[in-house]
User: Fold this.
Amino acid sequence: MAIRVGDRLPEAKFKVRTADGLDDVTTAQVFAGKKAVLFAVPGAFTPTCHSKHLPSFLEHFEELKAKGVETVACVAVNDAFVLDQWAKVNDVQGRVLMLSDGNGSFTKAIGMELDASGAGLGIRSLRYSMLVEDGVVKILNVEESPGVMEVTGADKLLAAM
Assistant:
């Protein structure tokens, strides 16, 4: 069953790329005691993710901060090395925390997996965005199709806050 508003995010470990290599970051480390935004993309460097979804959160980063958001995080079923390069290409500079869910464990635990095997991409994540307060989902927007960004951009999340 897919996660819903009012649900607590499950405990999970993500991989992040640091100057020293790879580190584990837990759900608790990212969300406990914080107001945070989490958005998911089907894949780094894929057309809609690269040209629209991530850029919307970079464009509206200061507005999110002004609304009290302490952390903006992006999760993808990609490895941490790919996410690190994607962050560099998009000049993220610490504004968005890139969380690798390489095996899709978190994505499956919240019921947001997408079987993109037909396109040669394997299991990925649905496109979504959420506001999370102290680990609890307060707002959740999910796209019906992975190739579009109509309800999951930062502007839509800001409007709902």
Q: What stands out?
A: The helical segments are 27-31, 47-59, 61-66, 80-89, 105-109, 154-160. Residues 47-59 form the longest helix (13 residues).
